[in-house]
Amino acid sequence: MRYLIFILFLASPIAAQSIETDLELVLLADASGSIDADELAFQRQSYAVAITDPAVVSAIENTLYGSIAVTYVEWATNQATVVDWTIIADMQSATAFAEALIGPPRQASGRNAIGSALLYGMAQIEENDIRGLRRVIDFSGDSMGNTFGPPITVARDQVVANGITINALPILRNGDFMGFDLPGAYEQNIVGGPNAFVMPAQSGPEFTDAVKRKLILEIAGTTPETQFASLLLQSVEIRQ
Q: What is d(CA 170, CA 194) in angstroms, rounded to the nearest whole number?
């Protein structure tokens, strides 16, 4: 029965009618001036690989509704939706989302406007026709600048007040920021809401793995700390 309900929505933008799902997830990726064309393509490829990873698809299939709704947005001075809201419920729909992510040209550019980006992500959730049990903005970036738009913490507080969790993936670069604690800054200024967390990622190959781990946690509605505690408990039980 669930298959019959969702087959009309798989791998396509959400129809005008309302649909219920486990998670509404905005993937809010950095496209500011510090991200060149190759890095932008790599970020998209990383999310495409992650969303089609068997472990991620399995996590989606094991949610209460057996599906999540995802949109991919890039932010800079302006914000641009690269892939509109899509229901993902199996490998076929995950693959279609990944393929749609690779092709579009860059549409966001300029300097940082993190506060505006967070509010744009909130608007995508508030204005769609989806009813998710949980609502999450997955923010990634490589700096803390906020040249344009509202202050970051003001925007963060408004998003969280609307029942939306913000998680963050700070992108770390060797030698950048002269020791500036980017994960700490994201923890203090950007993340918020139930089970919010920060997951740092090195630029390069490690980024794809971090995206995959982050997606699994968000789909499950847990955090790195609770996941670690669960694994530790399992190891103790096995030894006993």
A: 19
* Residue 228 resides in a domain: yes
Average predicted confidence (pLDDT) for the chain: 86
Q: Can you say whether residue 163 is alpha, beta or left, with left for phi > 0 and alpha for psi between -120 and 50 degrees?
A: left
Q: What are phi and psi of 129, to 5 degrees?
A: -110, 40
Max intra-chain CA distance, the chain: 57
Number of domains in the chain: 1
pTM: 0.86
Using a 10 angstrom Cβ sphere, with 0-12 exposed, 13-18 middle and 19 or more buried, the burial of residue 96 is middle
CATH of the domain at 193: 3.40.50.410
Parent domain of 113:
8-239
Task: Give residue 11's Cα distance to chain centre.
Answer: 18
